[in-house]
Amino acid sequence: MPEPTTSTLLAVFEDVDPAANAVEKLHELGLTDDRINVISGIPIQGRVLGRPGALTNVPRIGFLGAALGMALGIFLAYGTPYLYPLPVGGQPIFPVPMGWIVTFEMTMLGLMGFSFLGLFVDSGFPAYTPMQYVPEISDGRIAILFSYPTEDQQKFIDAMKNAGAESVAPAEARHL
Fold first, then answer.
1. pTM for this prediction
2. Domains in the chain, start-ordered, CATH in brackets?
3. In sequence order, which ranges of the chain are alpha helices (DSSP H)?
4. What pLDDT digit, counting tens, does each position of 132-147 carry?
5. How far apart are CA 38 and CA 142, in angstroms?
């Protein structure tokens, strides 16, 4: 069976509550989250709009960086004196308290560095594909961009209007 043709609508809302109601209404009409895109000028958590939370790999990437940093710190603190022993009168070859400091600092440096890089990797920065932008969101509006079966257009337009949309129009490319 061939897949039905789809079109894309853009609904603009003035506040979060009507936008949340609209997302709920789209779910009731059978749209899945992968067909709905919420565009906002302010960060809004997904659960406020009834959407799943964003999955992120930043904690795992940060943990990897911490482990690598700890390994480097242990090598610097204890591997270097092992490779190049330098006996100094009355001082231990392997300085434990200073080793803890070096290991801790390298662990934190690895954690912060990898978390910073992981943030870019996880967010898809830089993006080389065209992104949706709606100028109204700069004025504090919230836009919902969704694709729907073309034959049900009026049903979706009515649902968005009833949910409190300021405007509902077919999405089209615009010059900035």
1. 0.62
2. 6-54+131-170 (3.30.70.120), 58-123 (no CATH)
3. 16-28, 58-74, 80-83, 96-123, 153-163
4. 667 777 788 888 888 8
5. 7
